[in-house]
Structure formats: structure tokens, C-alpha cells
Amino acid sequence: MDKFRMMFQFLQSNQESFMNGICGIMALASAQMYSTFEFSCPCMPEYNYTYGIGLLLIPPIWFFMLGFVLNNNVSVLAEEWKRPTGERLKDPTILRYMFCSITQRSLIAPALWVSVTLMDGKSFLCAFSTNLDIEKFGNSSFIKEMSETERIRLLARIPCEDLFEHKELRVAATRYIKCISQACGWIFLLMITFTAFLIRAIRPCFTQAAFLKTKYWSHYIDIERKMFDETCKEHAKSFAKVCIHQYFENISGEMQSLHHHHSGKDGGGDEEEDKRSDEERLLGIRAQDDMNKVLWNWHTCKPALALRKDQMDGKNNSKLTGKINEAFNGFANGHTHGTEKKEWAVYYSKV
Q: What is the pLDDT of residues 234-247, one digit of tens each?
């Protein structure tokens, strides 16, 4: 369990690298699924186009939705979008940045599926075999004697080797359609690469300060949510521990006295420190109604993103006053030779 816990903590601390790895695994899985998938065209005019185009588009849509499901930032984005405004305003640029980041990762596996499918050409052949002009690929005098319905049925059988009798015509038509499919695949890859290049090249042309601000606050929202969850877990653990201790203390006074008798011999100081630490983690919230109120206020009215400077001034002034009093007492008692001089510099930062 410790190893799994360490692995989970590592993944949480390296969430961006973890999500990039998930996207890479999904891309490899899409390619592997297509290679192991047995493509079987129905070879019927009513279903060829639907089956071929469906195989080209439906799996990418599924991979795209799966990328959103596996991304933890989707819940952060939805929570930030739907939360009440309260004391903290919502910035649309941060929401757009988070949505674009999630979308970019989710598009990797669908793009790979479409490119592999077009390079293979089977679905393209199945979808567009009925639109061929078969007279370009060899002796097709027998087709002139057929009706339009029979001709379409014959062309729909081109993807199926065992159903099409004229082998030379089938091979020529198959190569022709596969060449068109591969050309579309290379154009698709070129468009994706060119789009990614434009995004990379155009981004520095805009104000970097706005981009850095958006990136910073998007990271802040994610980290704030994680820290709030961790604080709630610690509070819940301490709350449960204190409640259980109080329950057993109230149930049996004799057992509690016996427990105190043995704890004095077996190092009760550690237990007292644990109790104090649990009390500190409660942060003064010791009732169910109070905790429910805290959680409700956190959802409806999050605190403003501005640190109160008066509290920082009070803390720094108290520390400085304590040092001055120590120095003055040392001078009054004649111990100035043992007092070290220290320089104090206080820095304030606005968030």
C-alpha cells in the first residue's frame, strides 16, 4: 500500500506529465486497436458509405470524449464555470485557457486514428467504391449490358475480394482509391502540423504578460482545489479521531483511568502530542453544523484573491517588537556585549 500511495502522490505532483503520458498511451492504443481490428465492409450499396464514414469518424469522437473523461482538469473547469461569483470574480480568459489545454490533449488520439485510417484506405474504399467510373480501369464491356441498379451493386462488391469476379478491375480500382485515401491522409497530417506551427509561432506575437497571467491563475485554481481537498481530509481524519476518543472516554471511566495509569509508564507524552496535533488540525471547527457552513461558504462565496496586509504587518511588527525588547532588556542588565546585531528587511508582495 505504501508503494501505491507513493505512486499516487507522484502522479498528483506531476499531473501535467502524467496527462501527457495518458494522451500518448491513448494514441498508441488507437493505432493498436485499428491494426487488430478486422475491417469487414458489408459490400452493399445501402450500407457501404455509412459503414466506411462511420469507422472514420465515430472512433475519433469516442477517443475525444475519453480524453475529456480521463482529464482531471475537466471537473476544475466545470466547477470554476458554474460556481457563484461571490467575492471572487470569474475570468473568462482563464476558462478559455483551461478548455483549450484540455482540448489539445484530447485531440491527439483522434488525429492519430484518422491519419492511420486514411493511410490504410480500407474505409475510404468501402465508402466510395460505388462512385467509381469502372471503365477507366480495363475491359468493362459487360457493365454496359447491366442496369443502373445492377451496376451499383457490382461496384459495391469491389472491397470484398471473394464477391467480385473480375480480379484485374478490382485490383486497379482498389489501388486508385487507396492512393486518393493516402493523399487525403497526408493532407490531413500537413494541416494538423501547420496548425500546430501557427499556434506556436503566433503565440509570442501577442502580449506575453496576459498569457503568463492566465497560465498562473489556472495553475492556482488547480492547486487551490487540491490543497482544499487535502485540508478537508486532514480535518475529517482529526475530527473522527477526536470523536472516537471522546466516545470511548465517555463510555468507560474505569477503562480510561486504567489507560492513564499505563500510559504514564509507556510514554504518554507522544499520545498527548498526537492529541494536541489533532486539536490543532481542527482549526476551531468542532461541530457538524459549523463544518457544513464552512463548506457551503467555500462554494458560494470564495475568499477574494487579495492577502490582507494588516495581518502581515501585525505579525512582522510583533516579531520586531520582541527583538527590540530583548535587546533593551539585555542592555539594561549589562549584557550588551553578547547581543548580536541583525538587520531586518520586510518585503510585501501583492497577489
A: 999 989 988 888 88
What does the block give as the cell for 160? 470484398
Using CB atoms within 10 Å of the CB of residue 311, give its burial: 0 to 12 exposed, 13 to 18 middle, 19+ buried: exposed
Contacts of 239-244 with CB under 8 Å at 24 or more apart are: 239/282, 239/286, 239/291, 241/278, 242/275, 242/278, 242/279, 242/282, 242/286
Q: Give the model confidence (pLDDT) of 71-91 as tens digits.
A: 878 888 888 888 888 788 888
Helix (H) or strand (E) holding 33: helix 15-36
Number of residues assigned to the chain: 351
> Residue 24 pLDDT > 70, yes or no?
no
CA-closest candidate to residue 278, choices 288, 267, 286? 286
Kindly calculate the radius of gyration of the chain based on its CA atoms and give it in whole angstroms.
35
Number of C-beta neighbours around residue 156 at 10 A: 23
CA dist 296 and 292 (Å) reads: 6
Burial of residue 275 (number of CB atoms within 10 Å: 0-12, 13-18, 19+): middle
Selection from 97, 94, 90, 98 nearest residue 304 by Cα: 90
Residue 269 has pLDDT above 70, yes or no: no
Burial of 52 (0-12, 13-18, 19+ CB in 10 A): buried
Q: Higher model confidence: residue 72 or residue 156?
A: 156
Is 330 exposed, middle or buried, given 0-12, 13-18 or 19+ CB atoms closer than 10 A?
middle
Please return the burial class of 350, using the count of CB atoms within 10 Å of its CB with bins 0-12, 13-18 and 19+. exposed
CA 204, 207, 212, 218 torsion: positive or negative?
Answer: negative
